[in-house]
Specification:
about 350 residues; about 80% helix
Length: about 350
């Protein structure tokens, strides 16, 4: 009721003065706050009918299109914003974000650098450049920009997490741990940071400390699917498959549409020689990822362990069809077929 009253009041102001752009802006902001992007976009378009060069409306409408993955429309609006205010860094920064999203590295870099020339004190621009270089595996350059972002804004834990992720990939596990701890110190309730910290301890083989961090993560958000999956992996690494199975089954209950837990659970069941169960779970994962050759290969491998060559052939052929350029799958299939033929020949003697 309260919401309807505010909307009605703002619309009445607009009706009494159709050129009252402030009323339009307030209405658009209200729609944004209510996550009503379609109505917000309509209002920004009306403002632009009155003032075609209104910078903030061009930026906000571009951001709506970006959020809706209408990237070409977003680019057009940000280009118009640049024409409106060529010395405003925000348009270049937003344009860089679009090009980064569509994986046009050169244009993203060009626009981020233009944004920096206009305003070199914004931590978000340095963070965006860090993401950009991290995506192309230029880790040293990425870390340089993340550290610059931190020097401008120490309250954004995401930059510490990103540096830690890079250190983890580079095998610098202790450095990764330090940066995850810094992120968690900034926000003790950051489930992403606490989960990363748990994974980091697990990578170092400190499973007791890892499980403490996993528990903290789950206590903060019991529905956080990645925490249950990652904790299960840590239990497998610590040779406790039974606990891992329990956790993965719970992850599946939390989100039955995600394939990761199914695949990991089936892999464990294969190790436990519970082949029939594993096959059923692999096939459930395959319904979620029907074109994934790895799942077909897992199923085929399991049938081999069951000495069911006929079904193994079927799923190897399926995997080859899904990934015709994967020579490893072809080699496995050839070796399996060769072994099967030799076995049959021995049986016929």
């Amino acid at each position: 009721m309260f919401k309807n009253n505010i909307i009605a009041e703002l619309k009445e102001k607009i009706n009494s003065n159709p050129n009252d752009t402030e009323a339009y802006r307030n209405l658009a902001n209200y729609y944004i706050g209510s996550n009503d992007l379609n109505n917000a976009a309509d209002i920004y378009n009306k403002i632009l009918e009155i003032h075609p060069k209104d910078f903030q409306s061009l930026i906000n409408l571009g951001s709506i299109y970006f959020y809706k993955k209408s990237y070409m429309e977003a680019i057009g609006l940000y280009d118009r914003a640049i024409l409106s205010e060529p010395d405003n860094y925000a348009a270049y920064y937003n344009l860089g974000n679009v090009y980064a999203e569509i994986e046009n590295f050169e244009q993203a870099l060009l626009n981020y650098e233009k944004a920096l020339k206009l305003n070199n004190t914004k931590a978000d621009i340095y963070s965006a450049l860090g993401y950009l270089y991290q995506d192309i595996d230029n880790y040293e350059e990425a870390k340089k920009y993340y550290k610059k972002a931190i020097s401008l804004d120490e309250t954004n834990g995401e930059n510490y997490i990103n540096i830690a992720n890079i250190e983890q990939k580079q095998g610098n596990l202790v450095d990764a741990l330090i940066h995850y701890e810094k992120a968690l110190k900034i926000n003790p309730h950051d489930v992403k940071a606490s989960l990363c910290l748990a994974n980091s301890y697990a990578s170092l083989g400190n499973f007791k400390k890892a499980q403490e961090c996993f528990q903290i993560t789950i206590d903060q958000d019991p529905s956080y699917y990645p925490a249950w999956v990652c904790r299960a992996i840590a239990y497998v690494d610590d040779n406790d498959r039974n606990e891992a199975i329990v956790l993965l089954k719970h992850a599946i209950e939390l989100d039955p549409e995600k394939p990761n837990a199914y695949i990991l659970l089936a892999n464990i069941l294969v190790d436990e020689k519970r082949y029939e169960e594993a096959i059923m779970i692999y096939k459930t994962a395959q319904r979620l990822l029907p074109d994934d050759p790895k799942i077909s290969t897992f199923i085929a491998n399991t049938y081999i362990l069951m000495n069911n060559y006929m079904h193994a052939v079927k799923y190897y052929k399926k995997a080859i069809k899904q990934a015709p350029k994967d020579n490893e799958i072809k080699l496995i299939y050839i070796e399996m077929a060769d072994s099967y033929i030799k076995e049959k020949l021995r049986g016929n003697r």
